[in-house]
Amino acid sequence: MSDASPERQKSPHSALFADGAEALDRYLASLPGSVERLERAHLDREYSGRQFLRGWRISVRFSDGVDRLLDILIGQAFPFLPPRIALADRSKFLVWPHVEHDGVLCLLEDNQSINYASPQAVLEHLLGLAVKLIEDCIAGRNSDHFLAECNSYWEHATSLNAPKVWSLVAMRPPSRPIVVWRNENCIVAADSSAVLTQWVENFRGSTSIAEHETVAGLFAWLPTPLGPSEFPQTGADVRKLLRARDGVALERLESLIGPDSREFYVLLGAPAPNGTFAGAIVLKKQPERRGYGAPPKGTIRGFRRERSDRIPREVVLSQLLGAHPATLARVERIDAPWVHGRNCDDRVAHLRAASVAVIGCGSLGSGVALALIQAGVGDMRLIDPDTLTAANISRHVLGLQHVGQKKALALANHLRSNFPHIRSVTGWTRSWQELREGELDELARHDLIVCTIGDINVERSINSWARFARPDRPMVYGWLEPFACAAHAVAISGKGGCLECGFDDLGRPNFFATEWAGVETVRREPGCAAVFQPYGSVELLSGVATVSEVALQCILGEVSESTHRIYVTSQQRLHKCGGSWSSMWTSLGQRLEGNLAYERKWEQSPTCRQCNKTSIQT
User: pLDDT tens digits, residue range 171-222?
Assistant: First the structure.
C-alpha cells in the first residue's frame, strides 16, 4: 500500500492501522503454508458483533496430527489493541477452556498492555500462546481451568433469552430452602421471606409482595464447582447431580415440590479456586397437550384437579425432575458481601451491623452518607429539615427529580432504592433543635453520629448533648473552609478533647489552613439570609473523602483518641481563589504545594467549658 492510500490520509490512527496490517500481512506470508485473506462479509457473518475489519486464515498442524485452521483478526482499535486469534472449528466451545462461542481464543488478561509499535512481535507472541493453549487442550492439561473460571462458563452455557436471577442468598453451606420473587422485570432469590420483603420494599418503595409472586426454591451447596460436561440439561439431570453431590439437597428438593408446583428454582453454590461458583436452574412443568389421547379436562394424568393433593409424589416429581429440559440461568449476586468488595473485604460484616446517623444532608453530608452506604454501613438515620432546590443539585447526591422534596426523606429513598440490600435508611425532617426526647434517646444509640451542618452554634449544642448522652461513642464533625480549599474532619472519642476544645468563645476555629484577606468568601442570593459558599462538585470531593474516611475508621474502632484530619487543596488553586496559607498551616512544615492530608491530635483545652464544666457567665 502506498503512502498516498486513503487509510493513511484519514488520520494518524488510520495510518498506524494500515502500517500494522501490512506488517501482519508480510509476517503471515513468511510462514510455511498458504495464507487466506478473509473478506469483510465473512468477518461480519462469522464474527457478528465483533466489528473486525481485517482477517487472515492459516493452517497449523498439531501434535495429534490434525491440521486446524486459525483466524487472525483485527478491529478498529488495532494496533493499540492486540489481534484476536480464533479457531475456525466452533465445536470446541465448552469442550476446551478459553474458547468462546465463535471460536475466539482468550489468550490475554483484560487490559494487558502490549507494544503497539511492534504488531508483528505481538502476533508472534499470541500465536505461540494459541498453539500452547490448543496443545494443552488436546492433552487435557488445562481442564481444571473450567473450574477456575466456572461462573463465566456457566454464563456462556445459558441461552440469550435465559432469565437472570438476582441473588441475596448467602453463598455458604448448608443446602437449604429459599424464597424466590418473580415479576415481569426481575427474579430475586433470598434466604427468607423477611429478607426478600425488605429488599423488594426498598427497591420498589412501599409496595408489598403479592403471594402469587413468590415460589419456593432450593439453595444447594456443592463440594466443587461444575464443569460444562456436568451442566444439567433436564430435570432428571438435576436429580442425578444432587444425588451424586449432596443427597440432603435432593431430599429437600423433593420435599419442597408440591402438587401445585409449576415452576421451581434451584440455586447452586460451591467453593471455587477464585471465589464462589454461583448458578441457577429453572425447572418448569410443561403445559399439558390437548388432543387425541390427552387426559380428560379437569384431571392431571389421570388424577382429578380437586383431588390433586392425593397425586402420588413420584408423578408430581416426574413433571419437574423428568426428561423435560432444564433452563440454565445467570446469577447476579446482590448480597452485601459481594456488592461491597466481591467477598474480599473482611470489614463488611462489621459495617453491615453498624448504625450511623448523619445530621445535615447538604452537599457534604449527602456525599458522606452515600460513601458510607457504599462502604457497607447497614443502618442509617438522616436528619435535615431543608428542602432540595435546583441550586443544590450541582453538588448534591440528589438530582432534579427530587427538587421540592425534603432532603432527608428524598436521600433516604434514593439510598434504599439503589442499595436495597441495606437493613434500614430512614429520614427525619426536623432540625436538631426540634428533636423530641424519645428521638434523642434513639439517636444516642447509634454507633456513630456524623455532623455536617456547617453551623458551629448548632454543632456546639450537639457536642454538649453528646458528652452527656453518649460519652463513650464517637462523633465526627466535618466542615469546609472557603471555596472548599480545605476540609476538616474531627473525630471525638473517649480520650482527648471535645468539639468545643478547638474553638474560641465566639465559635471561631483555633486552627485553620487558609486566610482570605480582602476576599468575600460567601455569596448572597436575592433573598433573606440567603448566603452560600461558592465551590463546585469537583472541589467538594476531597471534603467528602476526608470526612467519610474518618467516619469509617471510627466505625471500625480504629480511632482511640480525638483526632483532627485536614485536607488542603493545591497552592495554585488557593491563590487563584484569592487565598493564602495561614501561619498555622505553614508552621506545620508541610509542603506548600498543597494537595495533601495532615493529621493532628485534637487536644483537650484547659479553658473548655464542656470539658471543665464551667458555668455560663451572667
Answer: 999 999 999 999 888 899 999 999 999 999 999 886 677 767 889 999 999 9
The grid coordinates of residue 264 equal: 421451581
Q: Helix, strand or coil for residue 352?
A: helix
What type of residue is 50? Answer: R
Instruction: Pick the closest to residue 254 from 243, 245, 244 (CA basis).
Output: 243
Query: Rounded distance, CA 393 to CA 236, Å?
Result: 56
Residue with cell 442468598: 169
- Residue 511 CA to residue 488 CA, distance in Å, equals 10
* Beta strands across the sheet bearing 379-383: 424-428, 379-383, 355-359, 448-451, 475-480, 486-492, 563-570, 594-601
Q: How many CB atoms lie within 10 A of CB 452?
A: 28
Q: Are 265 and 235 in contact (CB under 8 A)?
A: no
Strand partners, 182: 187
Q: 432-488 pLDDT, tens per residue?
A: 999 999 999 999 999 999 999 999 999 999 999 999 999 999 999 999 999 999 999
Return d(Cα 12, Cα 469) in angstroms, integer: 68
Burial of 83 (0-12, 13-18, 19+ CB in 10 A): buried
pTM: 0.90
Q: Which residues pair with 600 in a beta bridge?
A: 564
Answer for the pair 257, 320: CB distance below 8 angstroms, yes or no.
Answer: yes
